[in-house]
Amino acid sequence: MSLFDEEIEIEIAKRKPNTIWLTSLADLLALMLAFFVMVFSMSEIKKDTWEIVLEKLGYQLNDQVEASDKGPTADKNIELFSEQKAFDLAYLENILGSKIASSSELSDVEIFKSADRLIISFAGETYFGTGGDDVALKMVEATRLLGESLRYVKNRVEIYGHSDPSPMTGNDPDALTNWGLSLARALSVSDILKKSGYSFPIRVFGMADSRFFELEDVEDVQKKYALARRVDIVIREAEGLGR
Question: Which residues fall within 8 angstroms of residue 182, CB to CB, at 6 or more apart?
Fold first, then answer.
């Protein structure tokens, strides 16, 4: 390469623009952007202004999530766990309590309120004998009378059967266990309620002797075991199914 060519290349290199300052400018802009984002995040957003911004973007500021029936949906969502309340339990306790107090068939029935439920308890030899799920005539009449009132109640109704802790005796392989016995008693009461005109779904549970410890304060052993053989009709605050 001649000396002339080298001089030309040096001259061309000198005339090329120096862009190193762009790197510093980009860093400065990034720092300014970060600064303004931090200032914005520390500022208080005005709700009215924010609503206008959201509307411009095609959204609406709404505290409640509305269900949409468009497109496929999940089998369960959070709305299914939000239960509607029905009749006030204190009101039902007064109404049913008055009916129980005025009826001889319901003289042995106990009614009391506990937390979010109203419990109507059928306990003792009056209604169930030892080791059997046959319902006494008095139990049939008492349940029928209650069913006439409960048919208008919108609350969820559940029935819990209980037994004493005495093991079932006998060699019959088809004999009921304590759990099966408690469930059979609850189903018997449920069947009577339905025959008396109660047409809504009823949840039925067999508890066996799992709640026997609640009777530890009863000193009379015979009475304690009689109270353990019971069926509780439980009325919840929540509205029942099929209402």
Answer: 161, 162, 163, 206, 207, 208, 209
pLDDT at 159 over 60: yes
CA angle, residues 227, 230, 233, in degrees to nearest 5: 130
Query: Which pLDDT does position 234 carry in this prediction?
Result: 93
> Is residue 8 very low, low, confident or very high in pLDDT (cuts 50, 70, 90)?
low
Yes or no: is domain 89-239 CATH 1.10.3720.10? Answer: no
> Per-domain residue ranges for the chain?
3-81, 89-239
The half-sphere exposure of 118 on its side-chain side, counting CA atoms within 13 A, is 22
Question: Please, are residues 146 and 106 in contact by the beta-carbon 8 Å criterion?
Answer: yes
Q: Which residue, among 158, 234, 241, 232, has the nearest Cα to 200 in the 3D structure?
A: 241
